[in-house]
Amino acid sequence: MSRSGQESESTGYEPQRYRPGEYAREHIRITPTLLADGRQFFYLDDDPEHVSGAKTRELKDPRHLADRFAPGVDAEGKPIPVQAPQMRRDPLTGDWIPMATARMNRPITAGPGATAKGNPLAARKPGDPYQDGEVPDTDYDVVIFENRFPSMMQVPGLDPQTTYVDGNQLWPVREANGRCEVVCFDPDENSLPAQLPVKRLRTVVEAWAFRTAELSALDGIEQVFPFENHGQEIGVSLAHPHGQIYAYPFIPPRMEDELKQSQAYHERTGGNLLGDILAAELGAGERIVMRNHSWVAYVPAAARWPLEVHVAPVRDGVLSIDQLDDQERWDLAQMYSALLKRGNAFFDKGDGKGMDLPYIAAWHQGPVKDPRRSDYRLNLQFFSFRRAVNKVKYLAGSESGMAAWISDTTPERIAARFRETGPVDLSDED
């Protein structure tokens, strides 16, 4: 894992399921440490000096933060154990709803409601009056750490129990015994993900694979979800190139719907639904927007969003990012880079420069334990609710009230515009 035994011993961390491929063993160095309040933190370095060990990373977090699992006190000053976030089940839908009260206190650096004068995701700046950053070192390539204000959290020694709101079995309640992590793609807080070189995005792909494997090994985790929110209009509170990874202690509603459809399709036809969708899109051809040796990007035939692209691996049997081989990870970095650039070029303001597109990039992976995982297939769902240079799609009565989607365009028009922004075959690009 880490090339320095001393660094690995600083936390006693040893990987459970992650096994780096040849490229990662030779060109990416993972260095673990702990932040001041006990949260796990990982440097992923891709520059040769840190990979070789000629340079090392700062492991000590200088902040004075209380241990996040230290007991608190009640109104009478009596000690009480730390409380995990809770989640309640909606009896109408069966959905688990985490109650993320800690997120009310998180710092915000973007938009009119900004509360922080500094960026907690930036590298440490000696002498800067803002000293509540999450990164101990003055530089980094890619870092991963547990979210300081998580909507889900695993408390050591806590055995999740089901109780009931008001003692009524209509409303089950449990600890939200999951995990939330942050992935910072680059130290430059002013850069955009679309501007990062493919080599850096290859390190980001390795971060997704590393954490998918490791989070899947945690007790009680049912689904690992890497995702990226980008743009103030999406609701991003920290203006820095970064994404997140949620490890859910339940199957999220969207995945539950997809698993039900995939299982029913397999029982009816014997086929794999996502595999057959990809084959059908390739056969039709009209909605294919990009492809390379390992991946295909297409606008789905029933696209919901005014800009929507799904990305799927060519190889069958891939359920999660950690199952990708080295070539597939490189090809994914290339395609993700092209996807972000072309997303920015999608809407023409008249000056030929495009725009910084607000988007969500959501990785749909096979569930960790659910037996229906064998009927699933890894895919990325990329979308934006921008429908014109100066217009966004609002989820009004039909979408928000009944989850009955109404599209503002057609998938064929989306695909045609995407194909105007660059060649379908990425081997034609440098």
TrEMBL record:
Region annotation (Disordered) ranges: 1-24, 69-91, 110-135
Biased composition, class Polar residues, residue ranges: 1-13
EC number: 2.7.7.12
Presence of keyword Zinc-finger: no
One of the record's GO cellular component terms: cytoplasm
Keywords: Carbohydrate metabolism, Galactose metabolism, Metal-binding, Nucleotidyltransferase, Transferase, Zinc
Short name of one Pfam family: GalP_UDP_tr_C
Single biological process term from Gene Ontology: galactose catabolic process via UDP-galactose, Leloir pathway
Protein's name in the database: Galactose-1-phosphate uridylyltransferase
